[in-house]
Write a structure and sequence with these properties.
mainly alpha, three-stranded mixed beta sheet, two-stranded antiparallel sheet, 29 helices, 7 strands, globular
Protein backbone atom coordinates (compact mmCIF):
# COMPACT_ATOMS: atom_id res chain seq x y z
CA UNK A 1 0.00 0.00 0.00
CA UNK A 2 1.03 3.62 -0.45
CA UNK A 3 3.59 5.28 1.78
CA UNK A 4 3.30 9.04 1.99
CA UNK A 5 6.60 10.86 2.36
CA UNK A 6 6.03 14.54 2.85
CA UNK A 7 7.35 17.16 5.22
CA UNK A 8 4.01 18.98 4.70
CA UNK A 9 2.10 15.93 5.92
CA UNK A 10 4.38 15.57 8.95
CA UNK A 11 3.92 19.25 9.76
CA UNK A 12 0.14 18.89 9.43
CA UNK A 13 0.08 15.88 11.77
CA UNK A 14 2.19 17.70 14.36
CA UNK A 15 0.03 20.82 14.11
CA UNK A 16 -3.22 18.88 14.57
CA UNK A 17 -1.74 16.86 17.45
CA UNK A 18 -0.40 19.87 19.37
CA UNK A 19 -3.59 21.87 18.72
CA UNK A 20 -5.55 19.13 20.49
CA UNK A 21 -2.91 18.73 23.21
CA UNK A 22 -2.30 15.05 22.32
CA UNK A 23 1.06 13.48 23.11
CA UNK A 24 3.12 11.56 20.57
CA UNK A 25 2.82 8.45 22.75
CA UNK A 26 -1.00 8.62 22.87
CA UNK A 27 -1.43 9.28 19.16
CA UNK A 28 0.98 6.58 18.03
CA UNK A 29 -0.36 3.98 20.50
CA UNK A 30 -1.03 0.69 18.72
CA UNK A 31 -0.16 2.10 15.28
CA UNK A 32 3.56 2.93 15.18
CA UNK A 33 6.27 3.54 17.76
CA UNK A 34 6.51 6.99 19.33
CA UNK A 35 10.01 7.44 17.90
CA UNK A 36 8.72 6.60 14.41
CA UNK A 37 5.96 9.20 14.71
CA UNK A 38 8.56 11.78 15.75
CA UNK A 39 10.49 11.08 12.55
CA UNK A 40 7.29 11.18 10.47
CA UNK A 41 6.40 14.59 11.88
CA UNK A 42 9.88 15.84 10.98
CA UNK A 43 9.49 14.52 7.43
CA UNK A 44 12.32 12.02 7.95
CA UNK A 45 10.19 8.89 7.46
CA UNK A 46 7.26 7.97 5.19
CA UNK A 47 3.94 6.87 6.63
CA UNK A 48 1.47 4.34 5.26
CA UNK A 49 -1.64 6.11 4.10
CA UNK A 50 -4.09 4.03 6.13
CA UNK A 51 -2.05 4.57 9.29
CA UNK A 52 -1.97 8.31 8.59
CA UNK A 53 -5.71 8.33 8.01
CA UNK A 54 -6.35 6.56 11.34
CA UNK A 55 -4.18 9.09 13.17
CA UNK A 56 -6.13 11.97 11.63
CA UNK A 57 -9.38 10.26 12.65
CA UNK A 58 -8.08 9.93 16.20
CA UNK A 59 -7.41 13.65 16.16
CA UNK A 60 -10.90 14.39 14.84
CA UNK A 61 -9.43 15.85 11.65
CA UNK A 62 -11.91 14.01 9.41
CA UNK A 63 -11.99 14.57 5.66
CA UNK A 64 -15.77 14.15 5.39
CA UNK A 65 -16.26 17.13 3.10
CA UNK A 66 -12.83 16.88 1.50
CA UNK A 67 -11.89 15.60 -1.93
CA UNK A 68 -9.40 12.84 -1.32
CA UNK A 69 -6.90 12.01 -4.10
CA UNK A 70 -5.06 8.68 -3.83
CA UNK A 71 -2.79 6.52 -5.97
CA UNK A 72 -4.25 3.91 -8.31
CA UNK A 73 -3.25 1.10 -5.95
CA UNK A 74 -4.96 2.73 -2.98
CA UNK A 75 -7.98 3.56 -5.15
CA UNK A 76 -8.40 -0.07 -6.16
CA UNK A 77 -8.16 -1.08 -2.49
CA UNK A 78 -10.72 1.56 -1.52
CA UNK A 79 -13.15 0.39 -4.23
CA UNK A 80 -12.86 -3.17 -2.98
CA UNK A 81 -13.57 -2.01 0.58
CA UNK A 82 -16.62 -0.09 -0.66
CA UNK A 83 -17.94 -3.15 -2.49
CA UNK A 84 -17.52 -5.26 0.64
CA UNK A 85 -19.48 -2.68 2.63
CA UNK A 86 -22.15 -2.48 -0.11
CA UNK A 87 -22.64 -6.25 0.01
CA UNK A 88 -22.89 -6.32 3.80
CA UNK A 89 -25.33 -3.41 3.89
CA UNK A 90 -27.81 -5.41 1.80
CA UNK A 91 -26.93 -8.68 3.61
CA UNK A 92 -25.39 -10.27 0.52
CA UNK A 93 -23.04 -12.22 2.77
CA UNK A 94 -21.75 -14.67 0.18
CA UNK A 95 -20.57 -11.83 -2.06
CA UNK A 96 -19.04 -10.09 0.96
CA UNK A 97 -17.05 -13.23 1.87
CA UNK A 98 -15.80 -13.57 -1.70
CA UNK A 99 -14.69 -9.93 -1.90
CA UNK A 100 -13.17 -10.07 1.59
CA UNK A 101 -11.07 -13.08 0.68
CA UNK A 102 -9.77 -11.17 -2.34
CA UNK A 103 -9.03 -8.15 -0.13
CA UNK A 104 -7.24 -10.21 2.53
CA UNK A 105 -5.03 -11.87 -0.06
CA UNK A 106 -4.03 -8.53 -1.57
CA UNK A 107 -3.96 -6.04 1.30
CA UNK A 108 -4.85 -7.76 4.57
CA UNK A 109 -1.40 -8.16 6.09
CA UNK A 110 0.10 -4.78 5.20
CA UNK A 111 -0.47 -2.96 8.50
CA UNK A 112 -2.54 -3.05 11.68
CA UNK A 113 -5.37 -0.96 10.27
CA UNK A 114 -5.77 -3.32 7.30
CA UNK A 115 -5.67 -6.37 9.58
CA UNK A 116 -8.28 -4.80 11.83
CA UNK A 117 -10.58 -4.04 8.89
CA UNK A 118 -10.36 -7.62 7.63
CA UNK A 119 -11.06 -9.08 11.06
CA UNK A 120 -14.07 -6.80 11.59
CA UNK A 121 -15.54 -7.66 8.21
CA UNK A 122 -15.17 -11.32 9.18
CA UNK A 123 -17.10 -10.64 12.37
CA UNK A 124 -19.84 -8.84 10.41
CA UNK A 125 -20.15 -11.75 7.96
CA UNK A 126 -20.36 -14.28 10.81
CA UNK A 127 -22.97 -12.18 12.60
CA UNK A 128 -25.09 -12.02 9.43
CA UNK A 129 -24.81 -15.79 9.13
CA UNK A 130 -26.04 -15.96 12.75
CA UNK A 131 -22.98 -17.86 13.91
CA UNK A 132 -22.78 -18.47 17.69
CA UNK A 133 -21.24 -15.61 19.66
CA UNK A 134 -18.41 -17.81 20.88
CA UNK A 135 -17.23 -18.23 17.26
CA UNK A 136 -16.81 -14.55 16.40
CA UNK A 137 -16.21 -12.90 19.79
CA UNK A 138 -12.51 -13.95 19.86
CA UNK A 139 -12.13 -12.44 16.36
CA UNK A 140 -13.67 -9.20 17.62
CA UNK A 141 -11.24 -9.17 20.55
CA UNK A 142 -8.31 -9.77 18.22
CA UNK A 143 -9.46 -6.87 16.02
CA UNK A 144 -9.80 -4.60 19.05
CA UNK A 145 -6.26 -5.37 20.22
CA UNK A 146 -4.72 -4.75 16.78
CA UNK A 147 -4.67 -0.98 17.29
CA UNK A 148 -5.74 -0.71 20.96
CA UNK A 149 -3.61 -3.16 22.95
CA UNK A 150 -4.45 -1.47 26.26
CA UNK A 151 -8.08 -0.59 25.55
CA UNK A 152 -9.57 -2.82 28.25
CA UNK A 153 -6.91 -2.07 30.87
CA UNK A 154 -6.74 1.73 30.88
CA UNK A 155 -9.31 4.42 31.75
CA UNK A 156 -11.36 5.26 28.67
CA UNK A 157 -10.66 8.99 28.95
CA UNK A 158 -6.92 8.33 28.76
CA UNK A 159 -7.27 6.82 25.26
CA UNK A 160 -7.19 8.74 21.97
CA UNK A 161 -9.63 6.84 19.76
CA UNK A 162 -11.06 7.00 16.26
CA UNK A 163 -14.79 6.34 15.86
CA UNK A 164 -14.26 2.82 14.50
CA UNK A 165 -12.03 2.00 17.49
CA UNK A 166 -14.57 3.20 20.05
CA UNK A 167 -17.17 1.16 18.17
CA UNK A 168 -15.11 -2.01 18.73
CA UNK A 169 -14.95 -1.30 22.45
CA UNK A 170 -18.72 -0.74 22.54
CA UNK A 171 -19.32 -4.03 20.73
CA UNK A 172 -16.96 -5.99 22.95
CA UNK A 173 -18.39 -4.54 26.18
CA UNK A 174 -21.92 -5.49 25.14
CA UNK A 175 -21.17 -9.05 24.12
CA UNK A 176 -18.67 -9.70 26.95
CA UNK A 177 -21.48 -9.31 29.48
CA UNK A 178 -19.36 -9.26 32.64
CA UNK A 179 -17.83 -5.96 31.44
CA UNK A 180 -21.21 -4.20 31.15
CA UNK A 181 -22.21 -1.66 33.79
CA UNK A 182 -24.22 1.54 34.03
CA UNK A 183 -21.08 3.56 34.69
CA UNK A 184 -19.22 2.13 31.69
CA UNK A 185 -22.08 2.69 29.24
CA UNK A 186 -22.45 6.28 30.43
CA UNK A 187 -18.69 6.79 30.14
CA UNK A 188 -18.78 5.43 26.58
CA UNK A 189 -21.70 7.72 25.71
CA UNK A 190 -19.91 10.73 27.21
CA UNK A 191 -16.78 9.95 25.16
CA UNK A 192 -18.80 9.60 21.95
CA UNK A 193 -20.68 12.85 22.66
CA UNK A 194 -17.38 14.76 22.60
CA UNK A 195 -16.44 13.49 19.14
CA UNK A 196 -17.28 15.18 15.82
CA UNK A 197 -20.96 15.28 14.83
CA UNK A 198 -20.61 12.51 12.23
CA UNK A 199 -19.09 10.14 14.78
CA UNK A 200 -21.75 11.12 17.31
CA UNK A 201 -24.48 10.21 14.81
CA UNK A 202 -23.08 6.69 14.49
CA UNK A 203 -21.90 5.98 18.03
CA UNK A 204 -24.43 7.65 20.34
CA UNK A 205 -27.49 5.70 19.10
CA UNK A 206 -25.54 2.45 19.15
CA UNK A 207 -24.38 2.94 22.74
CA UNK A 208 -27.91 3.97 23.75
CA UNK A 209 -29.23 0.84 22.01
CA UNK A 210 -26.85 -1.52 23.82
CA UNK A 211 -27.38 0.20 27.19
CA UNK A 212 -31.16 0.00 26.74
CA UNK A 213 -30.96 -3.71 25.87
CA UNK A 214 -28.85 -4.28 28.97
CA UNK A 215 -31.30 -2.35 31.17
CA UNK A 216 -34.35 -4.13 29.74
CA UNK A 217 -32.67 -7.46 30.50
CA UNK A 218 -32.39 -6.49 34.19
CA UNK A 219 -36.17 -6.58 34.72
CA UNK A 220 -36.03 -10.20 35.87
CA UNK A 221 -33.09 -9.63 38.22
CA UNK A 222 -33.81 -6.36 40.02
CA UNK A 223 -36.74 -4.80 41.89
CA UNK A 224 -39.05 -2.69 39.72
CA UNK A 225 -38.01 0.64 41.26
CA UNK A 226 -34.31 -0.03 40.61
CA UNK A 227 -35.01 -1.08 37.02
CA UNK A 228 -37.20 1.99 36.50
CA UNK A 229 -34.36 4.25 37.68
CA UNK A 230 -32.04 2.61 35.15
CA UNK A 231 -34.75 2.87 32.50
CA UNK A 232 -34.99 6.63 33.11
CA UNK A 233 -31.26 6.99 32.47
CA UNK A 234 -31.41 4.77 29.38
CA UNK A 235 -34.43 6.65 28.03
CA UNK A 236 -32.61 9.98 28.39
CA UNK A 237 -29.65 8.48 26.55
CA UNK A 238 -31.97 7.30 23.76
CA UNK A 239 -33.48 10.79 23.46
CA UNK A 240 -30.03 12.40 23.33
CA UNK A 241 -28.90 9.93 20.66
CA UNK A 242 -31.99 10.60 18.53
CA UNK A 243 -31.17 14.32 18.67
CA UNK A 244 -27.59 13.53 17.59
CA UNK A 245 -29.06 11.66 14.61
CA UNK A 246 -31.46 14.47 13.72
CA UNK A 247 -28.72 17.12 13.78
CA UNK A 248 -26.96 15.21 11.00
CA UNK A 249 -30.21 13.92 9.39
CA UNK A 250 -29.16 10.29 9.83
CA UNK A 251 -31.06 7.17 10.90
CA UNK A 252 -28.27 4.84 12.05
CA UNK A 253 -29.70 2.21 14.45
CA UNK A 254 -32.89 4.29 14.74
CA UNK A 255 -35.47 1.53 14.41
CA UNK A 256 -33.50 -0.59 16.88
CA UNK A 257 -33.44 2.31 19.35
CA UNK A 258 -37.20 2.73 18.88
CA UNK A 259 -37.75 -0.96 19.71
CA UNK A 260 -35.77 -0.77 22.95
CA UNK A 261 -37.22 2.63 23.86
CA UNK A 262 -40.72 1.13 23.71
CA UNK A 263 -39.64 -1.52 26.21
CA UNK A 264 -38.10 1.15 28.45
CA UNK A 265 -41.33 3.15 28.38
CA UNK A 266 -43.29 0.02 29.24
CA UNK A 267 -41.09 -0.35 32.32
CA UNK A 268 -41.45 3.31 33.25
CA UNK A 269 -45.24 3.18 33.01
CA UNK A 270 -45.25 0.46 35.68
CA UNK A 271 -43.67 2.77 38.28
CA UNK A 272 -45.54 3.42 41.53
CA UNK A 273 -46.07 7.17 41.52
CA UNK A 274 -48.68 9.54 42.92
CA UNK A 275 -51.76 9.77 40.71
CA UNK A 276 -51.05 13.24 39.27
CA UNK A 277 -47.40 12.51 38.43
CA UNK A 278 -48.29 9.14 36.90
CA UNK A 279 -51.00 10.73 34.75
CA UNK A 280 -48.63 13.47 33.51
CA UNK A 281 -45.76 11.10 32.77
CA UNK A 282 -47.95 8.50 31.08
CA UNK A 283 -49.38 11.22 28.83
CA UNK A 284 -45.82 12.13 27.86
CA UNK A 285 -44.86 8.48 27.29
CA UNK A 286 -47.93 7.83 25.12
CA UNK A 287 -47.04 10.85 22.98
CA UNK A 288 -43.49 9.49 22.54
CA UNK A 289 -44.84 6.06 21.62
CA UNK A 290 -47.18 7.57 19.04
CA UNK A 291 -44.37 9.54 17.37
CA UNK A 292 -42.11 6.50 17.28
CA UNK A 293 -44.89 4.33 15.89
CA UNK A 294 -45.70 6.78 13.10
CA UNK A 295 -42.12 7.43 11.99
CA UNK A 296 -40.99 3.84 12.58
CA UNK A 297 -43.83 2.45 10.47
CA UNK A 298 -42.99 4.89 7.66
CA UNK A 299 -39.29 3.98 7.71
CA UNK A 300 -40.05 0.26 7.81
CA UNK A 301 -42.35 0.58 4.79
CA UNK A 302 -39.63 2.43 2.83
CA UNK A 303 -37.00 -0.15 3.73
CA UNK A 304 -39.37 -2.90 2.59
CA UNK A 305 -40.29 -1.10 -0.65
CA UNK A 306 -36.64 -0.71 -1.67
CA UNK A 307 -35.54 -4.10 -0.32
CA UNK A 308 -33.04 -2.59 2.14
CA UNK A 309 -32.47 -4.32 5.51
CA UNK A 310 -34.12 -2.17 8.19
CA UNK A 311 -31.52 -2.77 10.88
CA UNK A 312 -28.18 -0.99 10.59
CA UNK A 313 -25.07 -3.12 10.09
CA UNK A 314 -22.91 -3.16 13.21
CA UNK A 315 -19.71 -1.99 11.52
CA UNK A 316 -20.05 -0.88 7.90
CA UNK A 317 -21.01 2.76 8.48
CA UNK A 318 -17.75 3.31 10.37
CA UNK A 319 -15.61 2.44 7.35
CA UNK A 320 -17.25 4.53 4.63
CA UNK A 321 -14.98 7.09 2.93
CA UNK A 322 -16.40 9.88 0.80
CA UNK A 323 -15.16 11.64 -2.33
CA UNK A 324 -12.16 9.35 -3.00
CA UNK A 325 -10.53 9.64 -6.44
CA UNK A 326 -7.59 8.07 -8.23
CA UNK A 327 -4.87 10.59 -9.08
CA UNK A 328 -4.15 8.56 -12.20
CA UNK A 329 -7.76 8.56 -13.42
CA UNK A 330 -8.27 12.23 -12.55
CA UNK A 331 -5.22 13.17 -14.62
CA UNK A 332 -6.51 11.14 -17.58
CA UNK A 333 -9.99 12.66 -17.35
CA UNK A 334 -8.77 16.25 -17.03
CA UNK A 335 -6.24 15.88 -19.86
CA UNK A 336 -9.05 14.82 -22.20
CA UNK A 337 -11.29 17.62 -20.94
CA UNK A 338 -8.58 20.21 -21.57
CA UNK A 339 -7.88 18.75 -25.02
CA UNK A 340 -4.18 18.09 -24.41
CA UNK A 341 -2.24 15.36 -26.15
CA UNK A 342 0.40 13.64 -24.05
CA UNK A 343 3.07 15.24 -26.22
CA UNK A 344 1.80 18.68 -25.19
CA UNK A 345 2.91 17.99 -21.61
CA UNK A 346 6.51 16.97 -22.28
CA UNK A 347 7.73 19.94 -20.23
CA UNK A 348 6.34 18.17 -17.14
CA UNK A 349 6.99 14.49 -17.94
CA UNK A 350 7.56 12.27 -20.97
CA UNK A 351 4.65 10.96 -23.01
CA UNK A 352 5.59 7.42 -22.04
CA UNK A 353 5.58 8.28 -18.33
CA UNK A 354 2.21 10.01 -18.64
CA UNK A 355 0.77 7.03 -20.50
CA UNK A 356 1.92 4.66 -17.75
CA UNK A 357 0.46 7.00 -15.13
CA UNK A 358 -2.92 7.14 -16.90
CA UNK A 359 -3.00 3.36 -17.27
CA UNK A 360 -2.33 2.96 -13.54
CA UNK A 361 0.96 1.19 -14.18
CA UNK A 362 2.99 3.53 -11.97
CA UNK A 363 2.44 5.93 -9.10
CA UNK A 364 2.78 9.64 -9.75
CA UNK A 365 5.82 11.36 -8.31
CA UNK A 366 4.92 14.33 -6.14
CA UNK A 367 6.36 17.08 -8.32
CA UNK A 368 4.70 15.62 -11.47
CA UNK A 369 1.34 15.33 -9.71
CA UNK A 370 1.46 18.92 -8.49
CA UNK A 371 2.53 20.29 -11.87
CA UNK A 372 -0.15 18.36 -13.78
CA UNK A 373 -2.87 19.23 -11.26
CA UNK A 374 -2.05 22.93 -11.60
CA UNK A 375 -2.01 22.58 -15.40
CA UNK A 376 -5.49 21.04 -15.25
CA UNK A 377 -7.00 23.63 -12.89
CA UNK A 378 -6.81 21.50 -9.74
CA UNK A 379 -5.45 22.32 -6.33
CA UNK A 380 -2.13 20.47 -5.81
CA UNK A 381 -3.09 19.39 -2.27
CA UNK A 382 -4.23 15.78 -1.96
CA UNK A 383 -6.78 16.73 0.74
CA UNK A 384 -8.76 19.96 0.68
CA UNK A 385 -12.22 21.45 1.06
CA UNK A 386 -13.77 24.31 -0.88
CA UNK A 387 -11.07 26.69 0.29
CA UNK A 388 -7.37 25.91 0.34
CA UNK A 389 -5.75 26.97 3.61
CA UNK A 390 -4.13 25.42 6.64
CA UNK A 391 -5.02 28.33 8.93
CA UNK A 392 -7.56 27.31 11.56
CA UNK A 393 -8.89 30.86 11.98
CA UNK A 394 -9.66 31.04 8.24
CA UNK A 395 -11.44 27.68 8.31
CA UNK A 396 -13.54 28.85 11.28
CA UNK A 397 -14.34 32.12 9.51
CA UNK A 398 -15.49 30.22 6.41
CA UNK A 399 -17.85 28.17 8.60
CA UNK A 400 -19.17 31.37 10.16
CA UNK A 401 -19.69 32.81 6.68
CA UNK A 402 -21.60 29.73 5.51
CA UNK A 403 -23.95 29.99 8.49
CA UNK A 404 -24.46 33.72 7.86
CA UNK A 405 -25.13 33.12 4.14
CA UNK A 406 -28.27 31.18 5.11
CA UNK A 407 -29.68 34.24 6.89
CA UNK A 408 -31.37 37.36 5.54
CA UNK A 409 -28.63 39.72 6.71
CA UNK A 410 -26.78 40.38 3.46
CA UNK A 411 -24.70 43.26 4.79
CA UNK A 412 -23.17 41.18 7.55
CA UNK A 413 -22.67 38.26 5.16
CA UNK A 414 -20.85 40.48 2.67
CA UNK A 415 -18.59 41.80 5.43
CA UNK A 416 -17.64 38.28 6.43
CA UNK A 417 -16.92 37.37 2.81
CA UNK A 418 -14.63 40.37 2.35
CA UNK A 419 -12.83 39.46 5.56
CA UNK A 420 -12.45 35.90 4.31
CA UNK A 421 -11.19 37.13 0.94
CA UNK A 422 -8.49 39.21 2.62
CA UNK A 423 -7.22 36.13 4.48
CA UNK A 424 -7.10 33.74 1.51
CA UNK A 425 -4.46 33.50 -1.19
CA UNK A 426 -6.09 34.66 -4.41
CA UNK A 427 -3.20 33.14 -6.37
CA UNK A 428 -4.85 29.78 -5.66
CA UNK A 429 -7.47 29.26 -8.38
CA UNK A 430 -9.79 27.29 -6.10
CA UNK A 431 -9.86 30.14 -3.58
CA UNK A 432 -10.39 32.69 -6.34
CA UNK A 433 -13.21 30.59 -7.80
CA UNK A 434 -14.87 30.22 -4.39
CA UNK A 435 -14.78 33.97 -3.67
CA UNK A 436 -15.93 34.87 -7.19
CA UNK A 437 -18.96 32.56 -6.92
CA UNK A 438 -19.92 33.82 -3.48
CA UNK A 439 -19.60 37.48 -4.52
CA UNK A 440 -21.75 36.81 -7.59
CA UNK A 441 -24.42 35.04 -5.56
CA UNK A 442 -24.60 37.80 -2.96
CA UNK A 443 -24.77 40.37 -5.78
CA UNK A 444 -27.65 38.49 -7.37
CA UNK A 445 -29.51 38.08 -4.07
CA UNK A 446 -29.03 41.80 -3.36
CA UNK A 447 -30.35 42.66 -6.86
CA UNK A 448 -27.04 44.26 -7.80
CA UNK A 449 -26.67 41.78 -10.67
CA UNK A 450 -29.24 40.79 -13.26
CA UNK A 451 -29.85 37.11 -13.94
CA UNK A 452 -27.81 37.31 -17.16
CA UNK A 453 -24.91 39.01 -15.35
CA UNK A 454 -25.02 36.41 -12.58
CA UNK A 455 -24.92 33.55 -15.10
CA UNK A 456 -22.01 35.16 -16.92
CA UNK A 457 -20.02 35.55 -13.69
CA UNK A 458 -20.69 31.94 -12.75
CA UNK A 459 -19.40 30.76 -16.12
CA UNK A 460 -16.30 32.93 -15.73
CA UNK A 461 -15.73 31.45 -12.27
CA UNK A 462 -16.08 27.93 -13.68
CA UNK A 463 -13.58 28.66 -16.43
CA UNK A 464 -10.95 29.62 -13.87
CA UNK A 465 -10.38 25.89 -13.41
CA UNK A 466 -11.96 24.07 -16.36
CA UNK A 467 -13.18 25.00 -19.88
CA UNK A 468 -16.96 25.39 -19.97
CA UNK A 469 -17.21 23.58 -23.31
CA UNK A 470 -15.27 20.63 -21.89
CA UNK A 471 -17.75 20.35 -19.04
CA UNK A 472 -20.73 20.30 -21.37
CA UNK A 473 -19.23 18.05 -24.06
CA UNK A 474 -20.95 14.61 -24.22
CA UNK A 475 -18.91 11.71 -22.86
CA UNK A 476 -18.58 9.73 -26.10
CA UNK A 477 -15.90 7.07 -26.45
CA UNK A 478 -12.39 7.99 -27.57
CA UNK A 479 -10.72 6.10 -30.45
CA UNK A 480 -7.17 5.10 -29.57
CA UNK A 481 -4.27 4.79 -32.04
CA UNK A 482 -4.68 1.01 -32.11
CA UNK A 483 -8.31 1.41 -33.16
CA UNK A 484 -9.85 0.38 -29.81
CA UNK A 485 -12.50 2.55 -28.22
CA UNK A 486 -11.95 3.86 -24.69
CA UNK A 487 -14.69 5.56 -22.65
CA UNK A 488 -14.33 9.30 -22.26
CA UNK A 489 -14.62 10.18 -18.59
CA UNK A 490 -14.97 13.43 -16.71
CA UNK A 491 -13.77 14.63 -13.38
CA UNK A 492 -15.20 17.73 -11.71
CA UNK A 493 -14.43 19.13 -8.29
CA UNK A 494 -17.19 19.68 -5.75
CA UNK A 495 -17.07 23.43 -6.34
CA UNK A 496 -17.29 22.97 -10.13
CA UNK A 497 -20.31 20.71 -9.65
CA UNK A 498 -21.98 23.30 -7.42
CA UNK A 499 -21.49 25.94 -10.12
CA UNK A 500 -23.07 23.61 -12.69
CA UNK A 501 -26.00 23.01 -10.34
CA UNK A 502 -26.55 26.76 -9.96
CA UNK A 503 -26.37 27.27 -13.74
CA UNK A 504 -28.80 24.38 -14.21
CA UNK A 505 -31.23 26.03 -11.78
CA UNK A 506 -31.09 29.35 -13.66
CA UNK A 507 -31.32 27.87 -17.17
CA UNK A 508 -34.48 27.36 -19.22
CA UNK A 509 -35.67 25.14 -22.08
CA UNK A 510 -33.05 23.24 -24.06
CA UNK A 511 -30.19 24.77 -22.09
CA UNK A 512 -31.63 23.33 -18.87
CA UNK A 513 -32.03 19.95 -20.57
CA UNK A 514 -28.35 20.06 -21.59
CA UNK A 515 -27.25 20.74 -18.01
CA UNK A 516 -29.49 17.99 -16.68
CA UNK A 517 -28.14 15.48 -19.20
CA UNK A 518 -24.55 16.44 -18.37
CA UNK A 519 -25.19 15.90 -14.63
CA UNK A 520 -26.95 12.56 -15.17
CA UNK A 521 -24.17 11.30 -17.45
CA UNK A 522 -21.56 12.37 -14.90
CA UNK A 523 -23.12 10.46 -12.03
CA UNK A 524 -24.02 7.51 -14.25
CA UNK A 525 -20.29 6.77 -14.63
CA UNK A 526 -20.05 6.59 -10.81
CA UNK A 527 -23.22 4.52 -10.42
CA UNK A 528 -21.90 1.95 -12.93
CA UNK A 529 -18.96 1.34 -10.58
CA UNK A 530 -21.34 0.85 -7.61
CA UNK A 531 -19.77 3.84 -5.84
CA UNK A 532 -22.77 6.14 -5.34
CA UNK A 533 -22.61 5.82 -1.52
CA UNK A 534 -19.27 7.64 -1.58
CA UNK A 535 -20.75 10.73 -3.29
CA UNK A 536 -24.23 10.77 -1.74
CA UNK A 537 -23.92 14.26 -0.25
CA UNK A 538 -23.40 15.87 -3.63
CA UNK A 539 -25.49 13.31 -5.54
CA UNK A 540 -28.61 13.91 -3.43
CA UNK A 541 -28.11 17.68 -3.74
CA UNK A 542 -27.47 17.91 -7.49
CA UNK A 543 -29.48 14.98 -8.87
CA UNK A 544 -32.12 15.71 -6.23
CA UNK A 545 -32.66 19.07 -7.92
CA UNK A 546 -32.31 17.67 -11.44
CA UNK A 547 -35.07 15.08 -10.95
CA UNK A 548 -37.53 17.82 -9.98
CA UNK A 549 -36.73 19.84 -13.09
CA UNK A 550 -36.97 16.69 -15.22
CA UNK A 551 -40.51 16.24 -13.90
CA UNK A 552 -41.32 19.87 -14.64
CA UNK A 553 -40.21 19.25 -18.24
CA UNK A 554 -42.79 16.45 -18.50
CA UNK A 555 -40.34 13.53 -18.40
CA UNK A 556 -42.17 11.81 -15.54
CA UNK A 557 -40.79 8.31 -16.07
CA UNK A 558 -37.19 9.51 -15.92
CA UNK A 559 -38.00 11.64 -12.88
CA UNK A 560 -39.55 8.59 -11.18
CA UNK A 561 -36.46 6.52 -11.90
CA UNK A 562 -34.19 9.18 -10.39
CA UNK A 563 -36.41 9.55 -7.32
CA UNK A 564 -36.39 5.80 -6.72
CA UNK A 565 -32.59 5.73 -7.00
CA UNK A 566 -32.26 8.68 -4.61
CA UNK A 567 -34.55 7.03 -2.06
CA UNK A 568 -32.87 3.63 -2.32
CA UNK A 569 -29.34 5.00 -2.03
CA UNK A 570 -30.32 7.35 0.80
CA UNK A 571 -31.75 4.43 2.76
CA UNK A 572 -28.59 2.41 2.19
CA UNK A 573 -26.42 5.06 3.81
CA UNK A 574 -29.08 5.91 6.45
CA UNK A 575 -29.45 9.49 5.20
CA UNK A 576 -32.78 11.35 5.31
CA UNK A 577 -31.79 14.76 3.90
CA UNK A 578 -34.45 15.73 1.34
CA UNK A 579 -35.95 12.25 1.36
CA UNK A 580 -39.34 13.94 1.81
CA UNK A 581 -38.81 15.73 -1.52
CA UNK A 582 -38.08 12.51 -3.41
CA UNK A 583 -41.10 10.79 -1.83
CA UNK A 584 -43.40 13.73 -2.65
CA UNK A 585 -42.18 14.04 -6.23
CA UNK A 586 -43.26 10.45 -6.96
CA UNK A 587 -46.77 11.51 -5.95
CA UNK A 588 -46.57 14.71 -8.05
CA UNK A 589 -45.42 12.80 -11.13
CA UNK A 590 -48.27 10.29 -10.78
CA UNK A 591 -50.82 13.10 -10.43
CA UNK A 592 -49.41 14.87 -13.50
CA UNK A 593 -49.60 11.69 -15.58
CA UNK A 594 -53.24 11.22 -14.57
CA UNK A 595 -54.11 14.84 -15.30
CA UNK A 596 -52.11 15.49 -18.48
CA UNK A 597 -51.72 12.02 -19.99
CA UNK A 598 -54.97 10.44 -18.75
CA UNK A 599 -52.93 7.67 -17.14
CA UNK A 600 -54.90 4.86 -15.50
CA UNK A 601 -52.17 4.07 -12.96
CA UNK A 602 -52.95 4.04 -9.26
CA UNK A 603 -52.04 7.36 -7.66
CA UNK A 604 -50.88 7.29 -4.01
CA UNK A 605 -53.27 8.76 -1.47
CA UNK A 606 -52.33 12.46 -1.34
CA UNK A 607 -53.28 12.96 2.31
CA UNK A 608 -51.21 10.02 3.52
CA UNK A 609 -48.24 10.93 1.33
CA UNK A 610 -48.24 14.50 2.65
CA UNK A 611 -48.32 13.19 6.23
CA UNK A 612 -45.33 10.96 5.38
CA UNK A 613 -43.45 13.96 3.99
CA UNK A 614 -44.19 16.00 7.12
CA UNK A 615 -42.70 13.23 9.27
CA UNK A 616 -39.56 12.98 7.11
CA UNK A 617 -39.04 16.75 6.95
CA UNK A 618 -39.67 17.17 10.68
CA UNK A 619 -37.14 14.50 11.56
CA UNK A 620 -34.50 16.14 9.33
CA UNK A 621 -35.33 19.52 10.94
CA UNK A 622 -36.21 21.03 7.56
CA UNK A 623 -38.70 23.55 8.91
CA UNK A 624 -39.52 25.33 5.64
CA UNK A 625 -40.41 22.04 3.91
CA UNK A 626 -42.44 20.90 6.94
CA UNK A 627 -44.55 24.05 6.85
CA UNK A 628 -45.03 23.76 3.08
CA UNK A 629 -46.37 20.20 3.40
CA UNK A 630 -48.68 21.26 6.22
CA UNK A 631 -50.17 23.98 4.00
CA UNK A 632 -50.62 21.46 1.18
CA UNK A 633 -52.30 19.03 3.58
CA UNK A 634 -54.65 21.71 4.92
CA UNK A 635 -55.63 22.69 1.39
CA UNK A 636 -56.19 19.03 0.47
CA UNK A 637 -58.47 18.46 3.47
CA UNK A 638 -60.51 21.57 2.64
CA UNK A 639 -61.10 20.31 -0.88
Amino acid sequence: MDKLHSSELGTFLRKERTKRNVSIVDLSNGLVSASMLQKIEKGERPIEKRICQRMLERLGATNFFYENYVSQQEYEAWKLREWILNALDVEDTSTAWELLQQYEETYGAENKVEKQFCLIMRVQCMQQEKKPTEEWLPVLKQALYETMPNALHKPLDSLILAAEELNLIVEYVYYQEELSSVELYEELFSYASRMDIWSQAKLCPKIALFFSKWVNAQEENLPLEEVATLAERANRMCNDSIEALRIHAKIYFLLEVFEEKKNLISLLMKQKLDAETKKRKNRQYRAELKKMEQFGTLLQSLYTKYNIPAHTCAYTCFYRENEVYSINEVLYARRLMFGFKREDLEDICTSRTLQRIELGQTNVQGYIQKSLFQKFGLSPELYHSQICTDKEEVIQLEREYRLASNSKYLTHTKQLLQQLKSMLSMENLQNKQYIMCEEAQLGFLGRELSKAEYVQQLKEALELTVPYEAVMKPMEDVRLKNGRMQPRVKYLTIKELKIIEELMKLAEGEEKRAYIQMVLDYYNQIEKQQLLPSVMIMYSFIVGNAQSWVGNLGEYTLSDSLNHTLLRESLKVRRVNRMHSFWYNLLWNAEQRREKLSSAENVPDRGQRLQDCILLAQYAQEDFATEDYRKKLTKYKRN
